[in-house]
Amino acid sequence: MPEHENRAHALLSASGSHRWMACTPSARLEECCENRTSDAAKEGTLAHELCEIKVAILRGEEVNESDYEKLLNDPMYTEEMGVCTNNYAEFCVETAKEENGLPIIEVELDLTAYIPEGFGTVDCVIVSEKTLHIIDFKYGQGVDVSPVENSQLMIYALGAYDLYSSFYDFENVKLTIVQPRLSAEPKTWECSIQDLLDFGERLKPVAALAFKGGGEFAPSEHTCLFCKAKYTCRARADKNLSTMFLQEKDPYTLSNDEIGEILAKVADFPKWIKDLEDYALEQLLAGNEIKGYKAVEGRSSRVWSDEKKAFETIIKDGTEEKDLYETVPLSLAKIEKLLGKKKFASLVGGYVTKSQGKPTLTLSSDIRPSIQDVKSMFTEEGEN
């Protein structure tokens, strides 16, 4: 089992397709940027390696016990990660049984028919008589990923179709995102094989343009989010700075249309400023100069150097041990993880209600349904 973090990555990766398909020059711009690692990325790598080995175990395959123990003893491993990866493995195996298919894990795909020098590895493919099912595991909880027309999964599906279509007469494609830290249930979207192949034809010229570094930059909150060049990209800076000089219309008030236009333009502004601050601090700590700025030590906080001995000393002095601790109930989500979803549902599911979400402002492109009439959300008894 090759270590995930040591795998090669294509210039036009499937995971970055949402970016380079919209902002075609970004892929070549990223080539000049150093690779950054984060704890979140390392957690994701560990979780994916656990997913791979747990699916193999559930399928009755022999696994290297020392490799498995090494993953379980990793400092980043948590009980939550264990539950999430168990859920993923169980979903893959159970879904394969339901579809009379076989869960094939960590499938290496040749994507060169659509993307220059394209290749990638999909977490799980289930092939059955009529259905090609792509399953992708997301451990992150910062961005809720939708499978609907998800370019990463559709690219994987194209590669899997080329790999298996000579053995199976596929008619439809299922794309599933398993993101247990954000969604209790996996999310699935389905399309026809023809829809997938049509996407492949649209993909080819875009990928060819991106590979050359051509096209126009299209900075946005969405495309810049995970771009390695987002800190120093001039197109992003120009876009955000241009919002500071809005054309004046009515000298006294803004219309609703103008407010919507302004909010859309500045959506990325706070993130851009934060990215610049992070990059500037990183440069200063590396010994480079940022004009007008310096790095200083922030506010510190007191911590125990040896909590156990400190508590023993306090108790010996006469304070009761119970007075040194607080007892609080676990959250609903933590109790569900403790019991397991099935036991939780059967045991206390009847005591669970779901509160109505607070109205939230978002872009029109958000897939969530619009609240047509806010007033209808409040009953007479609930008005305040």
Automatic annotation (TrEMBL):
Key words of the record: Hydrolase
MF terms (GO), sorted A to Z: hydrolase activity
Protein name in UniProt: DUF2800 domain-containing protein
